[in-house]
Specification:
Elements: H1 7-21, E1 26-29, H2 34-47, E2 51-57, H3 63-76, E3 79-84, H4 100-118, E4 123-125, H5 139-145, H6 151-155, H7 159-168, H8 194-209, E5 215-220, E6 224-229, H9 234-239, H10 241-251, E7 255-258
Parallel strand pairs: 1-2, 1-4, 2-3, 6-7
Antiparallel strand pairs: 5-6
Helix pairs in contact: 1-2, 4-5, 8-10
């Protein structure tokens, strides 16, 4: 299928395989999202059995995402490992400082590096792309400090290129909505705890079950939900507003609102 895409994109794809092949053996931090799935697929093509996928298990990573990640690895015959990585135990994390993502990524990737060392694997890779350079992403600093490889950024991939290649490779994630950990739903400085993470997780899963595609339930204080969806799906919210109100109320929210600007990446960063 690769011959059906542009020559430039085909060359990038081949360069990525060559880059990955040069690593000999590799651990891929795998979330099951668009970018890491594409990276893992190409790593499997380049390295065969010499690639291992590692997923973090924590309160901020929904069970549905873990199940999808495991299912993909089983289908592709890729060794799959889940590491316990409870962010709430990281000093300072629950206070949700502006460098929260840095604290989380540093702790998580230290654990992945330790795992790689036990497996005698020299390199760990993650799936950020060039579009990630445009938002406030302190986690990228931790990745740089720890020497984690970022092959998609190294080769020069943008999100749409990854989606295009994913489609031609037959990956189920080619049109999967973007996802970020549940901690990104909290206002900086407001306490993150397991109860509120669960409220957000249940609410988003309920909205996805209604047929919505790109969903964020941002939590403000203890009991206010701000729902972000794409503007062309506002009507789904309005048609189901009574059911949505009742359900989110049962999850622990007292106030349920819809953001009139709609979904956008990193809306909690707009105040920074």
């Amino acid at each position: 299928m690769i011959e059906e895409i542009s020559l430039e994109l085909k060359n990038k794809y081949e360069n990525l395989k060559e880059y990955l092949r040069a690593q000999k053996r590799l651990v891929v931090a795998f979330s099951g999202g668009v970018d890491s799935t594409f990276l893992l697929k190409v790593a499997k093509e380049a390295l065969g059995e010499n690639v291992v996928a590692v997923t973090a298990k924590s309160a901020s990573f929904p069970e549905r995402e873990r199940k999808e990640a495991k299912k993909f690895c089983q289908k592709e015959n890729i060794k799959y490992i889940q590491l316990e990585s409870e962010e709430l135990q990281i000093e300072g994390f629950s206070h949700n400082p502006k460098n929260r993502c840095y604290l989380c990524k540093k702790e998580l990737f230290k654990k992945i590096i330790d795992f790689a060392k036990k497996e005698n694997i020299l390199h760990v890779a993650e799936g950020s792309n060039l579009d990630d350079n445009g938002d406030y992403r302190p986690g990228l600093q931790a990745i740089k400090e720890l020497g984690i490889l970022s092959p998609l950024r190294q080769i020069g991939f943008y999100k749409e290129e990854i989606r295009t290649l994913s489609k031609y490779l037959g990956l189920p994630t080619w049109n999967k909505p973007s996802f970020a950990c549940l901690a990104s739903r909290f206002v900086y400085g407001e306490t993150i705890n397991e109860k509120k993470l669960s409220m957000v997780d249940k609410s988003e899963q309920f909205l996805l079950n209604l047929g919505l595609h790109q969903v964020r339930v941002r939590i403000h204080g203890e009991n206010l939900a701000r729902i972000e969806v794409m503007p062309d799906e506002f009507d789904i919210i309005l048609k189901n507003r009574d059911e949505i109100y009742a359900k989110l109320k049962s999850f622990g929210f007292d106030y349920i609102t819809m953001d009139l600007k709609g979904y956008r990446t990193g809306s909690m960063n707009e105040v920074i």
